[in-house]
Design goal:
By secondary structure, the chain is α+β, with helices and mostly antiparallel strands. The protein is built from two helices and five strands; from the N terminus they run E-E-E-E-H-H-E.
């Protein structure tokens, strides 16, 4: 069943915070993802920095995938072993660490 055009939201998705390993990371320069709705596939597609491109049937599902992707990227790249990462992943790891900072525990 096709999504009614009035229900389709193609506004950009903006990510300024995510969680990884129980810690929050934040940036003052949010990642902005263009959003399309692919009528033929009935899917939302987002594309943005770090060569991220994700698609899912709903915006909520795409958002969940995005935050999971950021968690994975942080664990594998930013906290990963530089000895096993190639040149491009090392560059992305450095960009992630430069862009996002740990949010101090408010406790």
């Amino acid at each position: 069943m096709a999504t009614p055009a009035s229900d389709i939201d193609v506004s950009p998705m903006v990510l300024d915070e995510f969680e990884s390993n129980g810690q929050r990371y934040r940036t003052d320069r949010p990642l902005v993802f263009t959003t399309e709705y692919l009528d033929s596939d009935e899917m939302y597609l987002i594309e943005g920095e770090f060569e991220i491109a994700l698609w899912a049937p709903t915006r909520a599902e795409v958002w969940d995938m995005l935050t999971e992707t950021m968690d994975w990227m942080w664990r594998v790249l930013a906290e990963g072993d530089p000895e096993v990462l190639g040149r491009v992943p090392l560059e992305q790891a450095a960009q992630l660490r430069e862009r996002f900072t740990l949010v101090p525990d408010a406790a």
